[in-house]
Amino acid sequence: MIGSAEKKVISGGERKRTSIGVEMITDPSVLMLDEPTSGLDSFKATSIVRLLKSLADKKGKTIISTIHAPSSEAFYYFDRLILMADGFTVYQGDAGNVCMDYFRNMKRFQGEIPEFCNPGDFFLKALAINYPKI
Question: φ, ψ for residue 24 (rounded to 5)?
């Protein structure tokens, strides 16, 4: 029993995983997910990302997902990456070899990603827009 809007039977994380499972029942070739890891702890979120990566690699699925704050471990399961700022795409390409020269040319930051820094956090900080824009 999963429950209803009035009666909560399962946790938010269980509900999230169930909704992903329901989407996968029809065996789609393309799976589009909006924030499949939101509300999950780091372990469960990484498990979901690992499962999606496995589906892409072993079953040839195309997985498209928005993830606003991936853990550093989850980040390394991504094949391709689209980074956006202020509604515009600022990077699209290989997630494993994000082009640091591209960002240096934007004058957003200098240097390399620190050794123990979460790449997602690093790019979020580098692409942050301070409002109101001047």
Answer: -85, -15
Residue 62 has pLDDT above 90, yes or no: yes
Q: How far is CA 5 from CA 2, 22, 27, in A?
A: 10, 17, 27
Specify the fold of 1-78.
Rossmann fold (3.40.50)
Check if the beta carbon of residue 61 is closer than 8 Å to that of residue 20.
no
The residue assigned the tokens 């853990």 is 71
Task: Convert 46-93 into a string of H (helix), E (strand) and C (coil).
Answer: HHHHHHHHHHHHHHCCEEEEECCCCCHHHHCCCCEEEEEECCEEEEEE
pLDDT, tens digit, for every residue of 1-18? 677 778 778 877 777 788
132 versus 25: the higher-pLDDT residue is: 25
Q: Where are the domains of the chain?
A: 1-78, 80-129
Q: Tell me if 65 sits within 8 A of 33, measured CB to CB.
A: yes
**Separation of alpha carbons 79 and 40, rounded Å:** 22
